[in-house]
Amino acid sequence: MGLNSLKEISYSVLDLATVVEGQSIADTYHNSLENARQAEQLGYTRYWFAEHHNMISVASSATSLLIGYIAGNTTSIRAGSGGIMLPNHSPLVVAEQFGTLATLYPGRIDLGLGRAPGTDQATAMAIRGENMNASFYFPQDVDALQKYFSDNNANAAVRAIPGEGLDIPIWILGSSTDSAKLAAAKGLPYAFASHFAPTYFREAIEIYRNNFKPSAQLKEPYVMACVNVVAADTDEEADRLATSVKQMFMGIVTGKRRLLQPPAESMEGIWNVFEEEAVMQMLAYSFIGSKQKIKAMLTDFVNETGIDEIMATSHIYDHQAKLKSFRLFAEVLNLA
Where would I find the Luciferase-like domain in this sequence (predicted)? Predict the structure, then answer.
């Protein structure tokens, strides 16, 4: 098991560059930077963006560009991907992009890798073209990427310039047990998408820990759990703010996606019983409430899972309320 005390676990941010109703994508990016600067001051370890495509409310499609924007306008927080969907890209191009980032911002860049397309099948076809089966080669592509980053590649016919010889931590991201096996076999840190795919979380981290093989990058297993967080002064206010994320997940369940909606006084009349059940299942690892409530829930979660790091993602309509939520969450962990 990992560390069990709230005080000892690292805490980080996952940003999907969520576009809210009534605001522009440019507003979204500026808000992300303000959030990252505050996160840096509050002791958050890393600030990651996720690669998604063809989604009206998610503007983090050019993930590496946003990582550069955040890293270039902050001083110490790590910036990275949660993740780059490797089958969408050639390993060489990813090595060059992250080699460039790590050269500009040494010691501050993380490369989290996933195998999903981060979108629907039609868009995946537009991205991957003839390489629609690229996800089957994910383990080999991770190998190729590691090779491009290694000093040993200096005499190869194809080299990553920049990238070669740089220390860029690679993470395996996952939402199933397959990714756990790969992360364990390669001795890499493992980040689980429990914020939207909670079903296999416990099973996956157990497989990862039981099968972990130490590597040059990592001597012991390291588990990060990504969770939804909506913190406010009172449980009631947090519940009200959380109606935005519930509406967002309802859009995923029904296929009717919209920009992030303002909070509703109640979800009654917005969803039916089947939609509610599906959404609440996806939101199983969500920490919604006052500091006191979140601290109690988080303590149980950390004790039960032994995670090493928690990554918070917050889909909150009002930007000031979102900043406050991240402040309150940091206080829970700092003052534990």
Answer: 23-308
**What per-residue confidence (pLDDT) applies to 9?**
93
Q: What is the CATH number of domain 10-228+306-314?
A: 3.20.20.30
Instruction: Give the pLDDT confidence score for residue 3 in this predicted structure.
Output: 45
3 state DSSP class of 20:
strand
Place of tokens 């576009």: 19
**Predicted local distance difference test score (pLDDT) of residue 184:** 98
Q: Calculate what percentage of the chain has a pLDDT beyond 70.
A: 97
What residue has token string 């999907």?
A: 16
Q: Scan for tokens 């003839």, then name that residue.
A: 130
Sequence-distant (6+) residues with CB within 8 A of 164 are: 99, 148, 149, 150, 151, 153, 154
Domain segments of the chain as ranges = 10-228+306-314
Residues 6+ apart with CB under 8 A from 297: 287, 289
Are 91 and 145 a contacting pair, CB within 8 Å? Answer: yes
Neighbours of 199 (CB within 10 A): 13
Nearest to 310 by CA among 72, 5, 1, 9: 9
Handedness of CA 173, 175, 179, 183 (dihedral sign): positive
pLDDT at 8: 86
**pLDDT computed for residue 2 by the predictor:** 44
Q: What does each C-alpha distance from 297 to 76, 83, 86, 112, 301 come to in angstroms?
A: 30, 27, 34, 27, 6
Report d(CA 286, CA 229) in Å as an integer: 6
